[in-house]
Each structure stands twice: as C-alpha cells, then as structure tokens.
TrEMBL record:
Coiled coil: none annotated. It holds the Pfam family ROK. SUPFAM superfamilies: Actin-like ATPase domain. It catalyses: N-acetyl-D-glucosamine + ATP = N-acetyl-D-glucosamine 6-phosphate + ADP + H(+). Gene3D superfamilies: 3.30.420.40. It comes from the Bacteria. It comes from Pseudoalteromonas piscicida. Its EC number is 2.7.1.59. This is N-acetylglucosamine kinase. InterPro entries: ATPase_NBD, ROK. One of its GO terms (molecular function) is ATP binding. The lineage of its organism: Bacteria, Pseudomonadati, Pseudomonadota, Gammaproteobacteria, Alteromonadales. Keywords: ATP-binding, Carbohydrate metabolism, Kinase, Metal-binding, Nucleotide-binding, Transferase, Zinc.
Length: 302
C-alpha cells in the first residue's frame, strides 16, 4: 500500500492508495501545533494505524506547507513546531522506512501533471491560489526538483512597481520575511485586503465576490485590481518556466470570473508576441496534496 499524508496548518490527513494509486480511504486528525514530538508521534500513529489495518509496511509520502531546504530542514510558518526541524530524518527513524517529504503545492502540481488536468501536456505548472500562493513545475510528469526547494514559489515574487503605482497600493509585509510579496495581494485573503484598502470596509474575499456579482462598483474595482495583480504574477511564472499549461488549484480557483478573466489579465504583462498557455482547473481538488505525496512515496524503494 501507499500512503499520502497531507499536513496542513489545522489538520493532518492520511490517504491510503493501492499500488495503482487508486484511493481506498482516508482519515484526518488535528495538527499538533506546539510540540514537535507530538507532531512526529501523530504522523507515526497515522502510518502505523494504516499498517495495522492493511497488514503491511506501506510506502509513505508526506506533503506539507513550507520548503525543505538543502540541509533537509523544513521552513514552515503554518506548522510552527516543525520549523527548522529535520522532519524527514526524524520520521524515517520513527517509521523505520524511507519516506518522501515535499512542499504541498509541489505535491499538487505533481498529482495534476501525472494523473490530473495536466496529463496530456509535457510542461505543467501547478499553481495554488488559496490561503497562500505557491506552485510547482513538472516536466514529463515528474516534479522539477531544485537544490534549495524554492522553485515554483511564484507568490513570493515582488509586486510590480507599475501596478503598485497604478493602484496606489501599500507595501505589505509577508510571512516569509520579505516585503511586497505578491502572495499578500493575490492569495485568497488578498482580495479582502485590496477591498479594505480601497474602501476601509471589512469583507471576506467571498463577500467581495458576492458584492461584485451584485454589481457593487467598489467590489468590481477591487476584483479588477486583483485580476491585474494575478495576471502579472502569472506572467512572471510564464517568463520563468514557459509552461504549456497552468493548472489552477485552491479556493480562489473555484471563482468562475477569475478563471475566465485570467488569460486576458496575463496578456498585458508578457511580451506582445507571446501566447498565454492553456489555463485549466485542477482535476483532484482538495485530494491532490495527498495524491501527490503518495506518488512520491510510490517511487521509493520499499
Ligand atoms: Zn513572501
């Protein structure tokens, strides 16, 4: 059996797959936030439960927010207790088997490139627009892996000076330690932040979308600014990776107006003779993180 473990800021899910990567079942528990030992013990308990249930020693892939750097240390703001820790080595010792650990957005990209909406393309960028904005690049169904684990972090490219001036935007601090990262403007909470900037009113991003659909002028303006910024963010990743398709995931990708407007929003930010690649929604949705982790786990020698 193969287990894909999807670690989030609030929940850890384990999904059990057969050797053909067909999902059999999954279950989830709360993420221990304060104690690193409790965090490790919780993941080990999930894996051992699956081992006991299926009478085997399954292969394990883990997807989690943050990056795994060249020294194999996890840098993660969402799972603070794991920040700076050698999660892979520590879990391998507890589980007594090789495991794979990868950024959750990269797991999403891999699942969509090899078994999802990007399967008919050779060069696929998977982009999450959700709580955060991150992604990964795949070539021929395999994840492009880089020395320091930061390839694909399109959300931490800087806000364009042109757009900052056009909309009179403030430079917001980012959780990564930099300032003016696009993630603060184009991830899910970014639309609410832009609306607050233009109106001094507090709405959630979902409420801004509802107000836009109801015809409110300020919400329309906030959304059109949001799309301009998202178009520039995606133009940056097209210039960096030149993918044949961009597969969208995360909560914002469920907004029809966003998906429809995105190609036109990208166009002004790339060179005039360059075609915008295909842009499609993910096939696997919220299940993609566990699936991508399982794909990585399936490639390990048992
Ligand atoms: Zn950042």
């Amino acid at each position: 059996m193969i287990y894909g473990v999807d670690v989030g800021g609030s929940k850890i899910e384990i999904a059990v797959f057969d050797n053909k990567l067909q999902r059999i079942e999954s279950w989830r528990v709360a993420t221990p936030k304060q104690s690193y030992d409790a965090f490790l013990t919780q993941i080990a308990a999930l894996v051992h439960q699956a081992d006991d249930k299926y009478g085997c020693k399954g292969q394990v892939g883990i997807g989690m927010p943050g990056i795994v750097n060249a020294k194999q240390r996890v840098l993660s703001a969402n799972v603070p207790c794991a920040n700076g820790k050698t999660v892979k080595a520590d879990l391998m010792a507890l589980l007594e088997r090789p495991i794979a650990v990868e950024n959750d957005c990269r797991c999403f990209a891999l699942s969509e490139a090899s078994l999802g909406a990007g399967v008919s393309y050779k060069k696929v960028f998977g982009a999450i627009i959700g709580t955060g904005a991150g992604g990964g690049f795949c070539i021929d169904g395999a994840l492009y892996k880089s020395a320091q684990g930061i390839a694909g972090e399109y959300g931490h490219h800087p806000l364009s000076a042109l757009l900052q001036q056009k909309y009179g935007l403030p430079i917001w601090d980012c959780g990564c330690g930099l300032q003016g990262c696009l993630e603060r403007y184009v991830a899910g909470p970014g639309l609410a932040s832009l609306y607050r900037h233009f109106t001094d009113r507090e709405l959630t991003s979902e409420q801004v979308v509802a107000a836009m659909r109801a015809g409110e002028a300020e919400a329309k303006h906030a959304f059109s600014c949001y799309m301009d910024l998202l178009g520039s963010a995606f133009a940056n990743l097209i210039k960096a990776y030149d993918p044949e398709v961009i597969v969208l995931g995360g909560g914002m990708s469920l907004i029809d107006e966003l998906v429809e407007a995105l190609p036109q929003a990208i166009e002004p930010h790339v060179f005039s003779a360059i075609a915008v690649p295909d842009i499609v929604r993910a096939k696997h949705g919220d299940a993609s993180g566990a699936l991508g982790a399982a794909i990585l786990g399936s490639k390990l020698d048992a």
